[in-house]
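pasting for the record
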Amino acid sequence: MQWVRWFAEVGIDDVGSVGGKNASLGEMIRELAPHGIRIPDGFAVTAEGYRHFLSESGLESYIAEELEGIDRNQVETLVEASGRIRERMVAAAMPEDLVAELGEAYRRLSKNYHVKQADVAVRSSATAEDLPEASFAGQQETFLNVRGEGHLIESVKAAFASLFTPRAIHYRENLGFGHFDVALSVGVQKMVRADKGSSGVIFTLDTESGHPGIIMVTSAWGLGENVVQGRVVPDMYYVHKDTLDQGFSPIVLRRCGSKEMRMVYDEQGHRLTKNVPVAEADRARYSLGDEDVLTLARWSLAIEKHYSKRRGHPVPMDIEWGRDGVTGEVFILQARPETVHSRRTAPRIREYHLKASGEVLVTGAAVGESIATGKARVISDPSGMGRFQAGEVLITETTDPDWEPIMKTAAAIVTAGGGRTSHAAIVSRELGIPAIVGAEKAMTAVSEGETVTVSCAEGATGFVYRGEIPFDVEEIDTSTVERPETAIMMNVGDPERALHLSKFPCDGVGLARMEFIFAGWVRVHPLALTRFESLDSATRREVEALTRGYDKKEEYFVDRLSQGIGLLAAAFYPRPVILRFSDFKTNEYAGLLGGKPFEPHEENPMLGWRGASRYYDAEYKEGFLLEVAAVRRVREHFGLRNLKVMIPFCRTPEEGRRVLEVMREGGLVRGENELEVYVMAEIPSNILLAEQFAKLFDGFSIGSNDLTQLTLGVDRDSARVAGVFDERNQAVKDSCAMLIERAHRAGRKVGICGQAPSDYPEFAAFLVERGIDSLSLNPDAVVPTMRRVHALEQKLSARSAEEAREEREAEREIPFNPPP
């Protein structure tokens, strides 16, 4: 065949002939399908076929005349010229030899799938797709459920014509591409009956932070165009690459999207699809099972490895997939290199911080990690784009490529629909502006013309605030940060920020507070799940709503908690992450859903039933065993053995032994599968009995707040004696120095995870001089402290060298008097 090539006949070296999309399909069918990756077959009309069509129909000279001297900024003129070109292309006759080859290939494809007329997808594939300086992917049209040779020919011509939409013309003009430098190939691929199943998009990195260790899978019911175009909020799954590659099942995050619509075949016509509402029960359940998620993740990892090997450097991938609702099989539909984070080479981190709080108008999924302010412009459809002014915040339902001219001038974008793989999300990342997607009430909650602040710097949730809220921006060039010998670790409370924070040049997480994950990810008291029947009817209803979809209430707790812990451990892998078991006070536990009946009233909860004393107590032990089960899942099911655990507020060695016995009962045994167990050093008994604690635990972490409180006898929550509370007090410093000396003598490491080193540089310097092994700091203190500690170590090293030199000099000056 002259104008048609089967996918199996092409590879990634054939982009000039069949475009990036088709070349990639051919590469995968040739190289990866033999290893078990399912990819629907098909063929490509080549770029030569496209040029043959233009030449034989006389279209080339016509198009050149229409576009000669056109001003891309004159929107009306551009739209009119585009309309005339596309109308002429669709009406033109296709050359007979091209028609014959198309028909022959279509009949053969139908026969291969044992059907009379195969349902196919007709996708455009530009020959300049995915260049380092430009991405043409997604600019041209796709047609689904095309059946019959006549409709196939019409669809191919319509795909050819989509190379001359206003947005495509404008894009090429902006980048200086000649309109005939970019040719179009068309892929014809057998459809997967995802209309009866589900489909979505996969990225082999985290799309917001660029973290390369995560595979992000999105899924919704029906055909994938709704996910690609951002019409629905899909389900989302994060899979950790390294431990997946080791044979584990690390789905470290699972989020159920609203999945409002399902795109299906319109059985009444040809080349037609339609959107239908999704039943409430289906919206509330996941559209993809865990086994299929893991299968797709393994295939995606194999695809990424193959492309990286071919190109000689890491190549994150953007992949579309579908699950056939008839056969239950999953398929890869197409794959291309990701083009946003792969262009970023500078090792820089930008940290945005709001300097004040404000009234929240609406929330959604955060895209990017920045903040912007501007006047809100609420536009329901592209016909209103003329009202938009540069520097405003675009508020709309969803976007598609037609919106791109104004998106490029926006300060931020907020859409009521869509997820993190929607058009608005992808374009916002390319432009480097913040966006919030899936903000359902945005069109009514934000008023036209009011000034708003769009913040995507507070984790996975994005906030639209009323008014202009001041913020700071700090840029860190990580390549210039010199690392000290003392390990510099980080205190992390929010798993949803972990992927971003892991980019900081630190040695791991010295303190992850389980109670923070409780509050944000679980929200219910563990005993309200294990003793559900004892709850009052109103609380039972609330717990039922929260745990909907789980057969056992306890599984909700373990699943949610393990995801929060797992995401954090995956973000920093293989660096160590030290998780402190829950250290709520009784009044804080009581504040959790269903917590009041299970918590006593204490006059001073700070010194009451907290930490280790709860874990072996019959009144809480079953709750602690749920915590243990979540940790086991992260370490054994997810394979994240960089996770270590820490026991807080352990008053005596006997308490330590009892806690370790309960952990063993729950299947967590110190020393097995590299499990290390640390103890907080925050009570004077931890210092005075350090040698005994060292026999039970692998190391110590100083909690400077509680240690100061109990050393000085000051309630740290009391405003009246707040002036006495000072971690720099000599008694506290002596306690720290004593612990370091005794622990090191016993062969155990000592770190600190309290607030003091973050707040007081001189306190951090004191600990470094005493030989502490690690400092764990708040994120904003990591880089400044790292620089100070490195400089201090240099001084200490120079001083030691000078002292050694002086000792040698003194030895030489001592006269030698041999014995008589």
